[in-house]
Write a structure and sequence with these properties.
By secondary structure, this protein is α+β, with helices and mostly antiparallel strands. It has 6 helices and 19 strands. The structure holds 2-acetamido-2-deoxy-beta-D-glucopyranose (NAG) (3 copies).
């Protein structure tokens, strides 16, 4: 024997190393141990066996779904939606696929290798992406108006992370509140975003679950129009201007009317004067002829003056005119007084 006693401790160490190594308790690897996939997609698991093996058995949620032989492949044919095959270029590795996963397949996925290998269990999480939509409460608002957008997500699993963007910029989470409710196995949520409208804005609501590569989004375009002027001020301004204009018009109207009446009056007086001059002339002619005009009654003898008759007649006339034209009332009074004084003056002039 050449083996010395000295070699024993090293053998002992090797044994200790082998016994202590994790590979000893787990003779194959399963990857991934935690798989999160979107409903409707495929879930892939891979087992790598480090030692010679023959038969492998896959179970989903404790139901045996597939048996795989290294020599013969899948035996017998598996239920629809399950598949397994050897990895390319090696017999040490098997890929197990669940096609078109459904959310009720979430749970343990177990691989057992026959022989002294034991089993390894991974976890499958199936997520569901539902719908996202912003309720179009308004798309046109006035500037500085407080706006509120409601984003509704329906039929998600788990409840999605909802975020908002305005013109492509992420909105601070202080500006919105999201509440989620369970609806059967799925979740619905409502997120409320509030802000003050400043200018045209694209508002986007995004929902995401981890297995979703891209966020799912809904967006609306908010048109912000300038605030209309304060109508009360405008109305006040218009009314006061209108009132002022009306007053000016009234004054102009009165002045115009008065002018017209004065002109008329002057014409009338001219006519009156002409007639009187003629009658005076006829009186003079009659007297020079020496004939007594019996039809003539001198003004003085009757005790009244022709001007009285004329004046009263004129006044009556004026009164009627005044009644038919209310606006002229003021001028009438003013002119009647004027006219009385005038006529008396003229009377004096003609009689003397
Ligand atoms: C597995 O993934 C799910 C969802 O992604 C996560 O909630 C869970 O913590 C993970 N578990 C482990 C053990 O990593
Ligand atoms: C969110 O909810 C909290 C508590 O109910 C409230 O104080 C806050 O104003 C809300 N924020 C928004 C943006 O609605
Ligand atoms: C806002 O959008 C409307 C409609 O597209 C457009 O007519 C308007 O000019 C925009 N306003 C501004 C300030 O860009």
């Amino acid at each position: 024997m050449t083996m010395s006693w000295k070699s024993w401790p090293s053998l002992f160490h090797v044994c200790l190393l082998l016994c202590a190594t994790p590979a000893f308790s787990q003779k194959f690897d399963l990857e991934p141990m935690n798989s999160t996939v979107l409903q409707g997609t495929d879930a892939h698991f891979k087992t790598t066996v480090h030692k010679p093996w023959d038969i492998m058995i896959w179970s989903v949620k404790d139901n045996l779904v597939l048996t795989f032989s290294k020599m013969n492949g899948i035996i017998p044919p598996p239920p629809e939606g399950f598949h397994a095959h050897l990895c390319p270029n090696t017999t040490d590795c098997v890929e197990f696929i669940i096609y078109n996963v459904h959310r009720n397949q979430s749970g343990p996925v177990t691989c057992a290798v026959q022989g002294d290998f034991g089993e390894v269990t991974a976890e499958l999480h199936v997520q569901v992406n539902g719908t996202v939509s912003i309720m179009r409460e308004y798309t046109t608002v006035e500037q500085d108006q407080q706006v509120e957008f409601h984003c509704v997500t329906t039929g998600w699993l788990p409840s999605p992370t909802v975020s908002w963007r305005r013109n492509g910029l992420v909105v601070n989470s202080n500006n919105y509140n999201t509440t989620s409710v369970e609806d059967g196995e799925l979740f619905n949520s409502t997120s409320v975003l509030k802000f003050q409208a400043v200018s045209n804005t694209t508002v986007e609501c995004q929902a995401k679950v981890s297995s979703l590569l891209h966020t799912q989004a809904s967006s609306v375009f908010l048109v912000v129009v300038p605030r209309p002027p304060d109508w009360t001020v405008l109305i006040a301004v218009v009314t006061s201007f209108g009132g002022f204009a009306l007053l000016v018009l009234l004054i102009i109207g009165i002045i115009f009317c008065c002018k017209r009446r004065k002109e008329k009056q002057t014409n009338y007086q001219d006519e009156l004067r002409r007639v009187r001059t003629q009658s005076q002339l006829s009186v003079v002619t009659a007297q020079t002829d020496g004939k007594v005009n019996r039809g003539y009654l001198p003004d003085i003898q009757t005790g009244g003056t022709p001007s009285d008759h004329t004046n009263s007649g004129y006044l009556n006339n004026k009164k009627q005119n005044g009644n038919s034209n209310q606006a002229g009332n003021i001028c009438n009074k003013a002119f009647n007084t004027l006219e009385d004084a005038d006529l008396r003056k003229h009377r004096h002039a003609t009689i003397v």
